Amino acid sequence: MGIVKVIEVIAASEIGIEDAMQKAVSEASSSVRNIDSVFVKDIKAHVENGKITTYGVICKVSFRVD
What we know:
Shape: elongated
Order of helices and strands: EHEE
Number of helices: 1
Distance between the termini: 11 Å
């Protein structure tokens, strides 16, 4: 059985939550290999003038250690 490591990543998007998640995974994959899953720990949104301007996520990214 292999070892799985978990890191926490924060990302934001002006498009939506799914895009913020993708940005978190894309950024993590630039320096981490073997990413298996992402768990959204928290979601937030910034609001200006009564409208959401930015979506943010705090994710736990899991990957297998070689």
